[in-house]
Amino acid sequence: MSSLNGVRVLDLSRVFSGPWAAQMLADFGADVIKVERPGRGDDVRQQGLRVRDAQGNETRETSSFISMNRGKRSVTVDISQPAGQALVRELAKDSDIVIENFKAGDLVRYGLDYASLKEVNPRLVYCSISGFGQSGPYSHLPGYDPLFQSMSGLMSITGHADEEPGGGPLRVGYSVGDITAGFYAVSAILAALRHRDMVSGEGQYIDLALLDSQVAAISHVGMMYLVSGQQPPRLGNVSPITCPWQSFDCADGQIVIAVGNDTQFAALCRELGHPEWATDERFVTNPLRARNRQALIPMISEVFLTRGVQDWNETLEAAGVPAGPINGFEDVFADPQIVHRQMRFDLPHTSAGSVPQVANPVKFSATPVQYDRAPPLLGEHTEEVLKERLGFDDERLSQLRQAKVI
User: Fold this and answer.
1) Which residues lie below 8 Å from residue 128, measured CB to CB, with a gap of 6+?
2) How remote is the C-alpha of 299 from its chain's centroid?
3) What keywords does the record list, in alphabetical order (predicted)?
């Protein structure tokens, strides 16, 4: 039995944020129906690298799509047609959750907005994920991840200082705004579901903005500004509040050190061959080390250059000093800890034979995550779902196909 066994999700979303949230609900056991446009489907079916089958031939599936659509059943419906809108409303009648990430107010014209679907199902938890939210001066604007990274302040604290080589604001290397909003969406949906089932008996509407989500996720760094009025510095791999907490060049690469307390700093100093640094009045506490970083870091850097990354990593690990190499993905998925935690696995797939997956990191003790469905082909489950959920027969399905509703 899975955590969300029996929960039904209608996923009207596309691209990253909404599908990411819906996939996590599927991982937890929900029955997720993904509604896509006939012929084209989710935009990310055309984005990313093509998946190859066992013979090395390219399939129509893409790395972007298979990264956030496992566990779902795909139904193609043309919601621009009244008959397609009626199908979605029928599916919403016995659903628990709807997720959509159209522009603010876009679904009103199709009669698929919260007010409309609430009339047919007042128990519905309806989550709208949009760039700027359902209200405010930017609510009508489209938006994509780089905008939310830049407008949230994230890029202002990411990258090296302007005066350093390669200095200037940098984008985080993945769609962090989308994925962060997806996590907030799951939390909000589960909270609303509990309120419905334990308190009110009715669903509710969730208005979630990617910009808001990214501002919130900056957390303690944003709070540094609020309590000081000063823009937090952009320091590359260096922490502005903890020291040493950064990358260092070694003889054959780079290692990252994250010293979180004075005991760990003393252990680091011993392994570097300079135990006296731990009692130096400039470095005895973390605030002092951060304040005197310009004196401390060059001394540490000089020592790290004398040995290789693996040598240093093994030494510091044995001494209890938090350290680690900067891994490429070949190293990540070969790492014995990642292998032990089963963070990479394969799912049987209709056209590719199998597809690789990055696992859900949550480890439940009683209701483990189960991976029962590979990311679906476009419209793979249209007939199955409409027969199962709506009781349609072959004649009705044929009529819908002829009208190009499905």
Assistant:
1) 100, 101, 102, 104, 114, 134, 205, 206, 207, 208
2) 38
3) Transferase
Paired tokens of 221:
């760094």
Residues 193, 96: Cα–Cα separation, whole Å: 8
Burial letters for 155-191: b for 16+ Cβ neighbours within 10 Å, e otherwise? bbbbbbeeeeeeeebbbeeebbbbbbbbebbbebbbe
Average pLDDT across the chain, whole number: 96
Q: Which residues are catalytic?
A: 178
Residue 392 banded pLDDT, cuts 50, 70, 90: very high
- 1 band by pLDDT with thresholds 50, 70 and 90: confident
Q: Is the pLDDT of residue 240 over 90?
A: no
Q: Which amino acid is at 266?
A: A
Closest CA to 180 of 25, 341, 21: 21
| Gap between the Cα atoms of 387 and 390, Å rounded | 6
CATH 1.20.1290.10 assigned to 8-217+367-402 = no
Q: For residue 213, is pLDDT > 90?
A: yes
Helix (H) or strand (E) holding 62: strand 58-62
Phi first, then psi, for residue 103 (nearest 5°) are -60, 155
In 3D space, the residue among 61, 40, 57, 31 whose CA is nearest the CA of residue 49 turns out to be 61
What are 309's two structure tokens? 């990354």
280 φψ region: left (φ > 0), alpha (ψ -120 to 50), beta (else) = beta
**So where are the chain's domains?**
8-217+367-402
pTM reported for the whole predicted model? 0.94
Q: What is the mean pLDDT of residues 110-133?
A: 97
- 277 and 259 Cβ atoms separated by less than 8 Å: no
One-letter amino acid at 95 equals: S
